[in-house]
Amino acid sequence: MTTSLEKLAEKIGYKFADKSLLETAMRHSSWTAENIGFESNERLEFLGDSVIGFVVADIMYRRYPDFDEGKLTDLRKIVVNMNALSRVATQLGLGEFILLGRGEEAGGGREKTSILANALEAVFAAVYLDSDAMSAYALVRSLLSESIDEALAALKQLDAKSQLQELCSRLDNPMPEYRVTDEGPDHAKTFYAAVYIGNDWMGAGSGRSKKVAEELAAQQAFATLQDS
């Protein structure tokens, strides 16, 4: 294993017995297209997606026994998506270690949401194949714990939009209109939402996803409309 990948293994917090698995996890398909004879990380991405999905679903099922299927599904979607995974990959500095083809390198591939998220999925699969399910479980739980906690906070706001719509209907008001903007790089965007009822501004919110920003704006608008 090269010195750089040993550094990555330390960042991940796992020591590989089969070091070639981590090497494969870092090979983007654009690099293998230019370097014949090497396997890309695409198969590991496929497996890693399932590993993450299982671990997050299991954690949420056990942690929140009162949640129905719908809430558990919403919670998992907030955690298991490219934006959330790419943020974790960025925190690990994963982009530094990914092997890219010349085109992707020139196009800023090390900061692309999809490339970072897929590489993280490949890393989880590499750990799973190198050890066992419990080791992979522990790593996913450790690295995604913050995302899971943030998802629960966001989930508490998930009813705001429907509540606002019902209130507007009862008051014979126009239906809410959401206007969303964003800023920042793909892997770390911040979304800003403003909600209007007719021509009147009623509330605003911001978050790491469009959904969260709209929900926070709806919560503010609901409170404003109730008090009016």
Structure report:
The chain has 228 residues and is mainly α. The chain has two domains: 3-155, Ribonuclease III domain (Ribonuclease iii, N-terminal Endonuclease Domain, Chain A, Orthogonal Bundle), CATH 1.10.1520; 160-227, Double Stranded RNA Binding Domain, CATH 3.30.160.20. The protein is 62% helix and 11% strand. It contains eleven helices and three strands; from the N terminus they run ααααααααααβββα. A three-stranded antiparallel beta sheet has the order 1-2-3. A hairpin with a 2-residue loop joins β2 and β3 (200-207). α8 (113-130) packs antiparallel against α9 (133-155) and α10 (160-170) packs parallel to α11. The model has no long low-confidence stretch (mean pLDDT 89).
- Largest sheet: number of strands, sense, barrel closure: 3 strands, antiparallel
- Average pLDDT level: 89
Low-confidence stretches: none
Number of strands: 3
How many helices?
11
What pattern of helices and strands is seen along the backbone? HHHHHHHHHHEEEH
Strand content: 5-15%
- Describe the strand arrangement of the main beta sheet, using strand numbers: 1-2-3
End-to-end distance, in Å? 65 Å
Name the CATH architecture of the largest domain: Orthogonal Bundle
Per CATH, the superfamily of the largest domain is Ribonuclease III domain
The shape, in one word, is elongated
Number of domains: 2
CATH topology (fold) name of the largest domain: Ribonuclease iii, N-terminal Endonuclease Domain, Chain A
For the record, the CATH class of the largest domain is Mainly Alpha
For the CA atoms, what is the radius of gyration? 21 Å
Helix content: 55-70%
